[in-house]
Amino acid sequence: MTAFQFKERLDLSIIIVSFNTRDVLLDCLTSVYAQTEGISYEVIVVDNASSDDTPAAVSENFPDVRLISNDVNGGFSSANNQGIRESTGKCVALLNPDTRLIENSFQKICGYLQEHKEFSILGPGIIDESSQQSSTRLWEDTPLDAARKILGFYNPGDELQRMGDEEEALVISGCCFVVHRELFEEIGLLDENYFLYNEEDDFCRRARKHGKRICFFPETSIQHLQGKSTHQPEHREKVIVEAYKSNLYFYSKYYSCGWNFTLRSLYKLTFLAGLIRSAFRHLTGSATSGAEDSLRLKLKLLFLL
User: In 3D, which of 226, 17, 212, 53 has the Cα closest to residue 128?
Assistant: First the structure.
């Protein structure tokens, strides 16, 4: 028996990891409690050392939430794993703080997974702030996709046309990621080498290697306010660095040595070009004050390789 097997009591555990997202998190929690009916559930918030009084606000406004307050930010995967270990639900939903429920989505999701036990992971449809359908990648990134993203030739909007009416998927978006508890017991928790990004793709690949199936469930949708948690100006440089480190680790884990060399070389070229461009803007007085033209950031990224 593994360390995270529990007596199953609830239908669902909803785990939300927060970092300086107090206001959107409170909106998210409000929507969860207002919309979720007909199932037994718990909500666990894991706060990654926020400096905006998130823990106090959660405790004051939502006393039923199980709150885990970390002294340091150990990353998204690590915090989710803390929540998973503390959870008791038959299913576990990893929910981003910058999401909002607009209907009783979790009752529909739990009902579907109960009826369709052939699926171990499920992701709902995603809509944006304007209630328009957002693109959701349902297939693995190929090395060529990664190269196109590095070079700026990848258009996420193309994914919306490609989605079609697919039910079975290869991967699911991490903003609302619902997993049968037994899967964690079988293949383990999230890989904590990912501080931010790629963790859901990694988990889906590991699940499929064990013969598990993944479902895209557009019969219900979650609203995602994209970027609210990762585009905080004071932490933007950290997010960018950790995203590149996550990508490099993912490439080394799943792509060939040849593709690793190619992708790292492409990164080096784009970082060098970005450094030259930012240096020119600084010389001409047209540089911005954010991460986009930070010479320190460009040098740091270059030396990461």
Answer: 226
